[in-house]
Amino acid sequence: MKLLLQLACSLAVGIAILTAADQPNVSLRMESQHAIDKGLKWLLAQRHADGYWSEKEQPALTALALTAILGDPSRDPDAKLSAEVDQSLDWLVSNAKRDGGIYGKGLANYNTAVSMMALLLANRQQDEELILNARRFVTNLQQDYGERGKVDHPLDGGVGYGSSYAHSDLSNTHLALEALHYSKSLLADKPEEQKYELDWDAAIAFISKCQNLPETNSEDWASDDPDNKGGFIYFPGDSKSGDQKLPNGKVALRSYGSMGYAGLLAFIYADLDKSDVRYTSVMEWLCKNYTVEENPGMGAEGLFYYYHTMAKALALTGQDTLKTADGQEVRWREPLCKKLFNHQRADGSWMNETKRWWEGDAVLSSTYALLALERVHRGL
């Protein structure tokens, strides 16, 4: 498989030549690499003899672990993969189905999209056809509820779990768009594959239907009050953060942190112009609600997913600083890095005591934390 330059460049966003002004980052880089080393050592010790992590039925958990291992900033990307990593990649490949998906028991899009990212990073020639098949599978999961070919339903254009929870949601959509965005380079010399391309305009329409922005979202729940304007919810009509009654009597769905970063990532993967009001509005909401103490609107629930999406999204914006609600300029990497240090347990792992969304699984929480630290490390 040809070198995936686009993916490699994205993972390296923020790297700069060290100057005198950057000297304080040297210590933080060393500390973050130490935390990564300790976390990866623990993670590798959790690997089952067959090559998988955590649950056999959910290959995404193995894919996330592999992505953290392959994304280690100290790893030589040209070095031969270890026998253990190769075996785990082979285990991941063994979950490929005849329909092109890579999954075990349900959650077909989630498992396939996350597995694609691990296989893309591994860059093994023998996996190219499988990745293309998975790409077709994910593309075919894009929803079209109304008249075929028209965006005439709030859920049109998005992607869901691809199982009993088939309807579109923003979390699954941003993961699907990530895998499709980074695998585009595989289509360059394969015109026959290009006919399977996603309807990216429809995807942007769905993402917009998840945003609290009446300017571009006609849904009744969309609000432009200061608490919610520009932020995101899980899917049109459903916020895991609940609702609130506004002074004018309207009931608004509350924006929350992890979906704010998922929405920003989805716009980035869909190549939405940075000057678009939808992009600028979510950036304003995220800046106003920037914190590493909690997942805004959700408290400790989904905290490590929040850290992961935050680090990934802010690194891709190219912004080193954010202006918070009190007007302060904050260099977002340092507080996030230190918070992750504080959450790391003595054995090198991380785990969310609030166990919602599988974060009671130390393998999952640890991979989220490692992936966040690796993003931060590259930008220091």
Overview of the molecule:
With 380 residues, the protein is mostly helical. It folds into three domains: 1-10 and 49-205, no CATH class; 210-289, no CATH class; 291-380, no CATH class. It contains 14 helices and four strands. It has helices spanning 5-11, 23-45, 59-70, 83-93, 108-122, 128-139, 170-182, 191-194, 200-209, 257-269, 277-288, 303-317, 333-343, 362-379; strands spanning 243-245, 251-253, 321-323, 329-331. The strands form two sheets. Strands 1-2 form a two-stranded antiparallel sheet. Strands 3-4 form a two-stranded antiparallel sheet. A hairpin with a 5-residue loop joins β3 (321-323) and β4. α5 runs parallel beside α7. The two termini are 31 Å apart.
